[in-house]
Design goal:
Blueprint: E1 3-10, H1 15-26, E2 32-38, H2 48-54, E3 59-60, H3 70-87, E4 91-95, H4 97-110, E5 114-119, H5 130-145, E6 149-152, H6 155-164, E7 173-175, H7 189-199, E8 206-212, H8 221-234, E9 238-244, H9 250-259, E10 264-266, E11 277-281, H10 286-292, E12 295-298, H11 307-314, E13 319-322, E14 337-340, H12 345-357, H13 359-366, H14 369-377, H15 379-394
Parallel strand pairs: 1-2, 1-4, 2-3, 4-5, 5-6, 6-7, 8-9, 8-12, 9-11, 10-11, 12-13, 13-14
Helix pairs in contact: 1-15, 3-4, 7-10, 8-12, 11-14
Amino acid sequence: MPKVLRIINRFNLGGPTFNAALLTKYLEPDYETLLVGGREEDSEESSDHILQQIGVKANLIDGMHRSLDLKNDRLAYQHIKKIIREFKPDIIHTHASKAGAIGRSAGIAYGKAKMVHTFHGHVFHSYFGRFKSSLYKNIERVLALKTDKIIAISERQKLELSKRYRICRSGKIAVIPLGFELEKFQSDQESKRAAFRRQFMLDEDEIAVGIIGRLVPIKNHKLFIDAFKHSLENSKQKVRGFIIGDGSEREDLKRYTANLGIDYVNGDSSAMRKASLHFTSWIKSIDTVTAGLDVVALSSLNEGTPVSLIEAQAAGKPILTTKVGGVVNTVLPNQTALVKEIDDREGYKNGMLELIEDTQLRERLSEKGWEHANHKFHYRRLVQDMDQLYRSLLT
């Protein structure tokens, strides 16, 4: 039985954890997999509950943190080298940038395993300045030379990696979209919707617009807030907003909201009350959130494959999103989502208002969501694709 060492950045709530856990679980019994990664950051939600629900055990790597830190990075490198010596993997599969850099370096030193790396996103623009972005691109190019297969999670990302950023030749890149357990987003929607709307005191005639994800600069939540303000001022409908998630930008976003004159409340506080905009912090039962919302938005500056949009489509919810990264390979433009250029702020604001005002538009964008998400992003397809790739490397 082939052995796979699967290394992810950290066990925080997000696509890499879901996919690493699902692959670990469902590639059995054909593969023996050891899943390892770093602990979530203080501002992030732990993904321990995901591993428990799926029934997967994972090992924590000492020193694996998000930021660049030579002391901790070296500690993580030594820890992974020790794991490799003891586990003796046939394949080392790393997920995301930090795990990819440290894990592949240790795997290259080992020299006896096939090397696979998945780009769940990239940090080549909108994260850092020109010097640091250039440094990371050069590191990835060197590591790619010793990597047997690079996995992109969308065709758009493959094009970026091979043509725009020249990380490696296109022939070395396989496109394998993310995969998830999606049935829960279809099941028992009426009771889940009622529970969400009861918790946040939503009347049935109020249109609930939400954005789901980390509160960090790259997610560009201020565009969402600006659009929501525009809808509050111009819509004939009753509208409420929800920012679901947490992170380093939370206090700044609350100040920004207050400066715009929007009545807001911390939805996770004991003093719950009805407000125009709720900062809910993390909610683990996202299927309850999507059932309760009427529109799901995304306003990011950069994305790999946005999980929140996959889940929104699985729940049959209309989407408003910026056109960045793998978004156009995640949604069906004008069929499941309104997609706006990143610099078209007025178009984004008007798109939110249009979705709030037009019931028929919301219904039309909802019709194909489940079929599209189930066909393209179910974990069964992910496991099958990865099994085929592994077998091609081992033969």
